[in-house]
Amino acid sequence: MHEDIYRQKLQQFVADGELSKDETEALMAFQVRLCIPQETVDAAHTDICGQLFEKVVKEAILSVDGYNADRREAVRKAAQSLNLKKEAAMTIFSKAVRKLFLNYIQKAKAAGNRIEQAKELKKLISFNTVVVSELLADIKGELTTAEPATSSATSEPETTESEGEDEDYEWESLETLKKTRPDKELKEKLGKSSQKEISLKDDLPLRDRAELYQTYLMFCITGETTNVSFGTAISSKKDDSEYLMLKQLGHILGLTAKEAQDVHIKLAEKAFVQQAEVVLADGKLTESKADQLATIQKQVGLPSEHAQKIIKSITTTKLSSAIEASISRGQIGIQQVRGLKDANFELDSLISEPLRETIYKKCAEEIFSSGTGEFDEEEVYVKMPADLIISAEKARSIVQDIAKVRLENALVQAVALLRQKKRDGVISSLNDLLACDAAVPASKPLSWPTPRELDDLYCVYMKSIPKQDKLSRLQYLLDISAEKAEDLRDAATAGTLPQTGQEEEELAF
């Protein structure tokens, strides 16, 4: 109840838009008499006096006559006579200003093209410099007179203006970034500086603020275009003062020096990539092209190492496309891959994992169809997966899947070639069968409906004078007993080995 009484009294006193010294003293006596806490009094003043102050501020900001002497006097008077706390006055002012800032931003986003967007943003920058900065100076000046105590809220932004500005000297070569740091002569020419305390940092996400900053940066680079006859356009050159306005826009948007720098870097890299793509259209980097790219790099201001990364990325992408086409045609094998690796190419970025697995499968299939009967476990399970950046488990799984299928197929093929009386083909197929068995050893002999044909296969292979371990393994796979194998070997030694179907036919002829 006491609070309501105090608020009514305060409203009566500020009905004329100000609090006199006598009225202020009367309110203090009233507070003591009613035992009203100071927090309650402060809240009442912020609410009631704040509404009056907000009204004066809005009238000053939105005045069609601009922020003239009369408006300035009204703001000063309100700031001094309403006896508002500094924090409360700054909060009210900031809220009103940010609302108007957002109106400009909405108009910019709704503009039809980049030039119109930049024009709306330019109005925002001018509004901040001409109106907001002067209003803030007046409010702070009057408040400082009425309330001598200093506040870090008003001094902090001054110290943070250059905070992090030169964090990354690597990017000092960026021309657009250097222009946002004008020399003394340009600053004096432009005259007024703009406030940095009130921003849209907490009102818009970083992505939106960075896009708005980039829009005006593009306007600074390209200037304003004017359409003329026959569908052509003329671009008017902008001076470096536009870049100072760009920096002021960065403050309004609440961008840190690092965040603004990132926009400059992104745009410079994009410009370099677009031109480098044209120069390296065929994917070949010649000496003349390198000189051309070096000139472009200096024009956009990119550090050399970053330009080289982009060039390598483009050439790698072009090479990658050519390699993928060659892989699909079966022209790339493990030897070509090792050549790329020796040339220091990053294989995992040059060839996708599925294509690397395709190369590995192709190599495994070649081993199981080479007709040599050799299977080098270290080469297949260790070296090749390492060169192709494939896990050892994945590689073993691929090889074993292929070997299981090829094992049965090799026997069928060997019998088919036996029936066609192609002795060399039979030996090659049996060697492939042994290679598959080396990769995935069979747990039991292979089955075949005609045992005589298996005997013939064994005889043909034995006549090729193979290594003893291969002949012994083939004996097991073809399910030939030790006794029969011994008889066949003795017969071969005595020259009385039974004739195969092909040899019998040749003798009859």
Automatic annotation (TrEMBL):
<dbReference type="GO" id="GO:0061927">
    <property type="term" value="C:TOC-TIC supercomplex I"/>
</dbReference>
<dbReference type="InterPro" id="IPR031610">
    <property type="entry name" value="TIC110"/>
</dbReference>
<dbReference type="Pfam" id="PF16940">
    <property type="entry name" value="Tic110"/>
</dbReference>
<dbReference type="GO" id="GO:0045037">
    <property type="term" value="P:protein import into chloroplast stroma"/>
</dbReference>
<feature type="compositionally biased region" description="Acidic residues">
    <location>
        <begin position="158"/>
        <end position="171"/>
    </location>
</feature>
<feature type="compositionally biased region" description="Low complexity">
    <location>
        <begin position="146"/>
        <end position="157"/>
    </location>
</feature>
<feature type="region of interest" description="Disordered">
    <location>
        <begin position="146"/>
        <end position="171"/>
    </location>
</feature>
<protein>
    <recommendedName>
        <fullName>Protein TIC110, chloroplastic</fullName>
    </recommendedName>
</protein>
